[in-house]
Each structure stands twice: as C-alpha cells, then as structure tokens.
Amino acid sequence: MADQAVDIQRTSYTTASSSSSSSSNGWGGSVQWATAKAADPGVGYVWCGNGPTGYDCSGFTQNAFAQAGIELPRNSKAQYAAASQYVSLDNLQVGDLVFWSNNGSASGIYHVAMYIGDGQIAHARNPQMGVAVTDADYSPWNMMGTDARY
C-alpha cells in the first residue's frame, strides 16, 4: 500500500540512482544548495524556519526545490500529498522526497528530506543535529515505504 511504513536494514538498502550527479535531471542547483546549507555552520534547525539561516524540515525542502523552480507546499504532509508520482525506496532518484510517519500513513507524516544521490539525503533534522547530509537510512524506523517524486 502506498502509505505503509517500512523498516530498512542498512545492509539491504539500495537505490535506483547511486550517482550523485544530478545535472542531467535538473536537480543540480537544488543538490548544490542543500549540501552548501548543510555544510554551513551558520545554518541550523529552527522550528517553522524558512531560511536563510534557520530551517525546519519542510522549509528546507521547500527552499531546495525552489532552486529548481518548483513550488512546494509549506508542510511535509502537504508536500507528500502534492506529489505527481510515488516511488518505492528501491527506486529513489535525485530530487525525490523521503518521509517519516508515526502511523505508517500520510496522515502521520512528521519529517521530510530530499534524496541527493549516493544513498544520502539532505534535511533539517532537529535543534540538536541541525541541517545535515546523512545516509538515507539514518533512521529507518517510521520511514515511509513510498516517497514523492515531482
């Protein structure tokens, strides 16, 4: 089912796009922006933050997508709902949004991140961890089994 959560074993995580090269599909500017923000020590997590130096998860993805000329809704549930296509974790491509849900369905979504290639995501995590690039399966618990493609 499209809204089921999935537990992922680190050793079995694969993606359709293992390359971080994203210029061919138009996500180069978004990936560059996201990784630059994650590397900037002056940028952090701020509840309801929408930049330029503080972001929450959906504000971060909204701003990253803006670099590719794509308007996203402001919150993570709406970002999931507005997608034009849903894909499995095994078919992630650069620019896909990855979600976490506390009830296994869209109604429980509480976190979103952008897949940037090579098994990694960029996201605004929380006040302690800030804005970061992590392995896509850094926290497989509550990770949605389907993700959004625009």
Q: In words, what does this structure look like?
A:
The protein has 150 residues and is of the alpha+beta class. It has helices at residues 28-39, 57-66, 76-81, and strands at residues 44-45, 54-55, 85-88, 97-101, 109-117, 120-126, 130-135, 146-149. Helices cover 19% and strands 26% of the residues. A hairpin with a 3-residue loop joins strand 6 (120-126) and strand 7. The longest helix is centred in the first third of the chain and has 12 residues, at 28-39. The protein is globular.
Q: Spans with pLDDT under 50 lasting ≥5 residues?
A: 1-24
Number of strands: 8
Radius of gyration of CA atoms, rounded to a whole number: 14 Å
Span of the ends, CA to CA: 20 Å
Report helical residue fraction: 10-25%
- β content, as a range? 25-35%
SSE string:
HEEHHEEEEEE
Which whole number gives the mean pLDDT?
86
- Structural category: alpha+beta
Spatial arrangement of strands, main beta sheet: 4-5-6-7
Tally of helical runs: 3
Shape call: globular
**Main sheet record:** 4 strands, antiparallel
